[in-house]
């Protein structure tokens, strides 16, 4: 059977930058096993298979696969697929803003599509689950060894220290002293296996508050060997959970806070992720992540019958 696919670069407005994504706009007829094998064939951070929704009030159902596993939720596939389907005319645009809902393993995920002159220009997800804090992580000195860094490269302060958060997909956030330490980080698989593999999360998100571009706030890198992702150019699920890490540290008790996160620069795939966090009386009440996407290629794949 022949299956149509589209590839796009997400969290960028320039082709061949950002995070590549493969989308199968109509995955009906593909078995779970075929989806896994196709994702392994593309070998991108994620491949998305679009299906009809289970609930008629929702727009589509998304199945999201890394080269090694299916994910209940991921950010760049969510915002990227919304852009792709809108650009292909699969999702009708209702004006400057179109609101849709994707069904994912984590639950219904609302997505906003902003348009200009009848074409999508920006897509933004709202998390289905608010950030939840993870268990106590390993010591900063152990994490520094795992990252091939000096002990004082990993911050361990009252207001900035390693901590895990999840919005349905858990990550360990490790703050570093600056952009130089971020650049020098190299994941030691042997130490990673000893202290993180098989635990609450093995996905590592490094960040520092020394961005490169004017207007940005955070510089980041993400490693997830267990999912077959050596390093990810842009991780929307991680930046969603980062809303918890940054939100609880922000002194503001009410209002909407905003950050721009740089990721993928060290890989030659610069990406910009726009993060918003709503707070009321000191509590986080909403998290949104969005960005630009560009179409890159389109084709068909010959796959065996399910």
Word description of this protein:
With 306 residues, the protein is an alpha+beta fold. The chain has two domains: 2-126 and 292-298, Roll (Diaminopimelate Epimerase, Chain A, domain 1); 132-290, Roll (Diaminopimelate Epimerase, Chain A, domain 1). It has helices spanning 32-42, 75-87, 140-146, 179-184, 189-195, 236-249; strands spanning 2-10, 19-24, 47-51, 60-65, 70-71, 97-104, 107-116, 119-126, 132-133, 163-166, 170-175, 204-208, 218-224, 229-232, 255-263, 271-280, 283-291, 293-302. The protein has an 18-stranded mixed β-sheet that branches. Strand 2, helix 1 and strand 3 (47-51) form a beta-alpha-beta unit. Helix 2 packs across helix 6 (236-249). The mean pLDDT is 96.
Q: Determine the CATH topology of the largest domain.
A: Diaminopimelate Epimerase, Chain A, domain 1
- What is the domain total for the residues? 2
Identify the CATH architecture of the largest domain: Roll
- Helix share, percent: 10-25%
Structural class: alpha+beta
Brief account:
By secondary structure, the chain is of the alpha+beta class.
Key structural traits:
globular; Diaminopimelate Epimerase, Chain A, domain 1; alpha+beta; 19% helix; 18-stranded mixed sheet; 6 helices; 306 residues; 18 strands; single chain
């Amino acid at each position: 059977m022949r299956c149509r696919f589209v590839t796009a670069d997400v969290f960028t407005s320039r082709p061949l930058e950002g995070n590549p994504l493969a989308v199968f706009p109509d995955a009906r007829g593909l078995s779970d096993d075929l989806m896994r094998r196709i994702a392994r064939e593309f070998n991108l951070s994620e491949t998305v298979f679009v299906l009809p929704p289970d609930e008629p009030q929702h727009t589509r159902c998304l199945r999201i696969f890394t080269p090694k596993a299916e994910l209940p939720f991921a950010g760049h596939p969510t915002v990227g697929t919304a852009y792709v389907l809108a650009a292909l005319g699969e999702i009708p645009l209702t004006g400057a803003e179109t609101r849709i809902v994707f069904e994912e393993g984590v639950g219904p995920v609302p997505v906003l599509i902003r348009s200009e002159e009848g074409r999508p220009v920006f897509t933004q997800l709202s998390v289905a689950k608010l950030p939840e804090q993870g268990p106590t992580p390993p010591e900063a000195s152990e994490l520094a060894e795992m990252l091939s860094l000096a002990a004082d490269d990993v911050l361990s302060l009252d207001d900035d220290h390693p901590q895990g958060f999840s919005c349905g997909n858990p990550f360990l956030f490790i703050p570093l002293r600056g952009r130089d330490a971020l650049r020098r980080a190299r994941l030691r698989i042997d130490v990673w296996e000893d202290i993180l593999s098989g635990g609450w999360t093995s996905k590592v998100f490094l960040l520092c508050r020394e961005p490169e571009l004017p207007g940005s706030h955070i510089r980041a890198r993400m490693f997830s060997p267990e999912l077959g992702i050596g390093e990810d150019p842009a991780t929307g699920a991680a930046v969603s959970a980062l809303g918890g890490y940054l939100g609880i540290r922000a002194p503001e008790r009410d209002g909407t806070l905003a950050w721009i996160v740089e990721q993928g620069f060290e890989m030659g795939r610069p990406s910009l992720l726009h993060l918003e966090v709503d707070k009321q009386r000191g509590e986080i009440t909403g998290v949104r992540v969005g960005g630009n996407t560009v179409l890159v290629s389109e084709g068909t794949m010959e796959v065996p019958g399910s």
